[in-house]
Amino acid sequence: MLNRGDFNSYIYIPVKNNEHVRKRSQVCFELLQKLVEKQLVISKDKEKATNPYNHERDELNAGEASKHVFYQLDELNKCRKKPKGESTKKEFKNHIHITIADTVQIKKHMITSFVTKIREELQTQSCFHLFFKNSVDLYRSQKHTKYFCAYSVTPDQQETHLDSLLKKIDKVLDTFGLTNQYTNRICHLSLAYTDINLGPLLEESQLNVGDTFWSDIEKIVEDNNLSSSSSSTTESDEFCIYVNRICIRVGNTVYESRFRNLHDDLNILQSDESGDSSTE
């Protein structure tokens, strides 16, 4: 029987917010806005078919679509309103990250032993470079309420670095009677999201709407109006991070487990050092 607790907990690799990530965020945002524009056209066409006497203007502008597209980095959203139902209170600062283990519930008395066990299991884990695909993929949330544009970890990198890390985490979760629902999923970095249902667009593009992941989603955007900075970024720059730790969030507290550091002097995008963390 699974442990049912008072605190939600999940495990992730934090990613540092810098200019490189912001440029990639812009690529995802612009692509997702194009997808939403196409979806709004489909919705409007269906509405006109059922109500031919609707004389609302035919043209959909980018401003309408942009009301439903958001950066994962809150600071890039500026004065943009969050989707209905999302809290606007100043709560725990949720940095961009790569999820390693999905949400599980643990009891208060388990926290210290849980975090300690993870640190023990990862005490020989070395830092590593993690590379992403250059193309953008589309993901759907587990609750089917959001769609995310993201960069997925390349298959060889997933196998070389993350599969072994996931096995170690799963071993600890199993010890506490917990299950990682994230097992066998593709690890990715989400950078933009929308609250618009893209199902009809995916169906029209002859993609399986029952999936939760669609590779190289830019293929269904027929025009090439994405900014030149977007296309040049995806084609010419390798996207990677230097992973030097994982974080274990329990409630609103974050504990970290640092890896053996082999490359202190490398000038490369690292796991986020700026996030709130606490150690025992």
What does this structure look like?
There is one protein chain. With 280 residues, the protein is α+β, with helices and mostly antiparallel strands. The protein has one domain (7-49, 65-76, 95-223, 238-266): Alpha-Beta Complex (Cyclic Phosphodiesterase, Chain: A). Helix content is 30%, strand content 21%. It has six helices and eleven strands. It has a five-stranded antiparallel β-sheet, with helices on one face. It has a four-stranded antiparallel β-sheet with strand order 3-1-10-11, with helices on one face. The two termini are 29 Å apart.
Detail the topology: elements first, then pairings.
Elements: E1 7-14, H1 19-50, H2 62-66, E2 69-71, E3 97-106, H3 111-121, E4 128-131, E5 137-140, E6 147-152, H4 155-175, E7 188-194, H5 199-204, E8 213-214, H6 228-236, E9 240-243, E10 245-250, E11 253-258
Antiparallel strand pairs: 1-3, 1-10, 2-7, 4-9, 5-6, 5-8, 6-7, 10-11
Helix pairs in contact: 1-6, 3-4
Compact overview of the structure:
This is U6 snRNA phosphodiesterase 1. It holds the Pfam family HVSL. The chain is of the alpha+beta class and 280 residues long.
Key terms:
five-stranded antiparallel sheet; 6 helices; Cyclic Phosphodiesterase, Chain: A; 21% strand; 280 residues; single chain; four-stranded antiparallel sheet; alpha+beta
Give the helix proportion (percent range): 25-40%
Structural class assignment: alpha+beta
Q: State the fourth-level CATH superfamily.
A: Cyclic phosphodiesterase
Q: Give the overall shape.
A: globular
* Overall CATH class: Alpha Beta
C-alpha-based Rg, rounded: 20 Å
Mean pLDDT: 82
Tally of helical segments: 6
Report the count of strand segments. Answer: 11
Q: Could you spell the SSE succession in H and E letters?
A: EHHEEHEEEHEHEHEEE
CATH architecture: Alpha-Beta Complex
Through-space gap between termini: 29 Å
Strand order of the largest sheet: 2-7-6-5-8
**Proportion of residues in β-strands:** 15-25%
User: How many distinct domains?
Assistant: 1
CATH topology, by name, is Cyclic Phosphodiesterase, Chain: A
Q: Segments where pLDDT lies below 50 for 5+ residues?
A: 88-92, 226-234, 264-269, 273-280
